[in-house]
Amino acid sequence: MKKIIMSIAALLVAANAAQAGDQIHIVGSSTVYPFSSYVAEELGATTKFKTPVVESTGSGGGMKLFCAGNGADTPDITNASRRMKDKEYANCQKNGVKYITEVVIGYDGIALAQSKDAAPMNLTLAEILLAVAAEVPNKAGTALIANPYHFWNEINADLPHRKITFYGPPTSSGTRDAFEDLTMKAVAKKMDVYTKLYKADKKANKKYKKYHEVRQDGVFVPSGENDNLIVQKLTKDSEALGIFGYSYLAENSDRIAAATVDGIAPSPAAVQDGSYKLSRSLYFYIKKSHFDKVPGMKAYVDLFTSEQMIGDSGACADIGLIALPKEMREHYREQAKNLTNMKPEDLKKK
Amino acid sequence: MDQLDMHTNASMRKRLRADKRFKLYGLAAISFALAFLVFFFVDIIGKGAPAFQQAEIQVTVHYSEAAINNYNKAVDKEYKHLVSKAWLRLVPNQIAGKPELLGQDYEEWVLAENSVDQYLKGHEGHRLKEKNQRLVDQMKTDGKVRLVFNSGFFNSGDSKLPENAGILAAAIGSVMVLLLTMLFAVPVGVMTAIYLEEFAPDNRLTQVIEVNINNLAAIPSILYGLLGLAIFINVMGAPRSSALVGGLTLALMTLPVIIIATRAALRSVPEPIREAAYGLGASSLQVVWHHVLPLAMPGILTGSIIGLAQAMGETAPLLIVGMMAYIPDAPGSIFEATTVLPAQIYTWSSESVRAFEERTAAGIMVLLTVLLTMNAIAVKFRNRSENTW
Questions:
Q1: Range of the domain at A47
Q2: Do A207 and A340 reside in the same domain of the chain?
Q3: Closest Cα to residue A52, out of A71, A84, A79?
Q4: For the segment A280-307, what is each residue's pLDDT rounded down to a tens digit?
Q5: What is the number of structural domains in chain A?
Q6: Which ipTM value was assigned to this complex?
Q7: Is there a contact between B160 and A247 if contact means CB atoms under 8 Å apart?
């Protein structure tokens, strides 16, 4: 028995030695995952480097693993569908992950889509807030009440008499965070009826500063991380709206169509010039201490930031990434090349 | 007399009717279950069968200087979107490996892009542009398009390009993980069962252990993933996503199943056999090793195979230990990152590209075939074990 335990222990030690950086490990956002793994595949197929392992853990989960330390078993790169948070940066510093380079690869549009059979729909950000928030202003706009709306024409008489149903991502998803940030928070932080509650009692009413509580009376249906499921539900329920990444809309354009937001339909051009409001930047973060130790890191970063991948007609655009404007692409390519160190104050400026 | 007769007749008929109704209920239940099964199979096979064919197109390939720098230039511009990038991107490497190719043009059958493939199979949502549809139609009449057996599905790993995606890496990973599970779970499980059944005294402690084992067999499998993460990765430092971690985690999950099945098999060996052996002066070890274990073997094997089949189809615990990832290379050792069949199916099911739908279904078909084979073997052993003492 002793022998067996000894040999297992020896095996595990050997395992760690064997694993120590001969293959890039990437974790992070499920939104960046398709692009990241596409680049990984191209790297594995066209160079002598091993194909990097890409694991989709969600942005937050990725940051946690990435910031755990500098050990060989920690990830080399983490993807994120939002910027690193102050807290996460502090955690990284605390664990000795001092030098981090930030790269933006492009934009992701969030689409509000419906069945192709449904009549076209145009919504404003405020209307979206009124449809999905748990508490909304009363008609006079003086106080908050539990969301009474079940049909769109109750919110705005110009909208059709159509049942309000949303199929959207669950709270663990980065897409959900982004949806709440871009619609609910963006509108609610400018509405007095919410913010005056916050000002009245900053501690107890903290949530009203940027209100983003989604209603839980069955109108907003969290539908799991699998966006294909939402697409399938939309084809069966022509009254409902679905919330998911732009790439799913592009891929399923025969079955579903986008609702316009403030009169603008999601498209690469509208996202780039900022006229389509529901979009966000996609990031990846490089652990500098691994850069020279893990073979292929430089090749991977170079390939990911190349025009061939994230350019206007690059391979990532084919699978749904919306490219950055040209100057920004060059800026981040340069930053990746020099491994520019991210500073805490970088995270503050927007 | 007549009255009595009538009475018994009436009650007889009533009982017969109840009998008939009871059989009908059973029949209804089984047809209901069968209907679901048939629906499932028709749906999966209908979706998955086309994946076993793959479109190829015939184009002129230019092995030129320009192609080395930009592989899209290896074919004429109008065919650029019809040829799979998985094939195109290898052109520069091909030239590097065989310099005499440089400057040559060849007519070759190459892997077609997934939209072409989907268009030829008549799937809605193929996303082939109208201009290219006409081109493909033209090529079809010229005999420059064909559907061939999709061997790539069986001899390549995962890919983001559906036409290039296969199950090889996941299948190898599954075999590795399953072997490890077997190596860890079967000896430990069988030894535990032998001790509990043949040697352990019947006291409070063994009763507590027994209740716990039965309980462990029923807890959600994802908890084993958390346990695996805590013990094997965080404490023992086994590499994340590796076959080793996966195998150990699934072994934990399979242990109770094997222990319970083995105990049942041991219990079914009649007591007189043990007594006869003891009567002839055999030691405990000899009784178990020479007589009880061989007789219980078919039952033990059945239980082990069913336990392993369950492990083979498991995904939830593997998600936690990092095996649900994009890992296209087949693992070279048990320490390297690997994925398994069910995890591969799950990853494909959440891909946005529509052509993955049929790959997902085809993957399910392969997994089902393996599981059916394993269960058929288990049934065979069970039949053999139904011997008379």
A1: 2-106+281-348
A2: no
A3: A79
A4: 889 999 999 998 888 999 999 999 999 9
A5: 2
A6: 0.76
A7: no
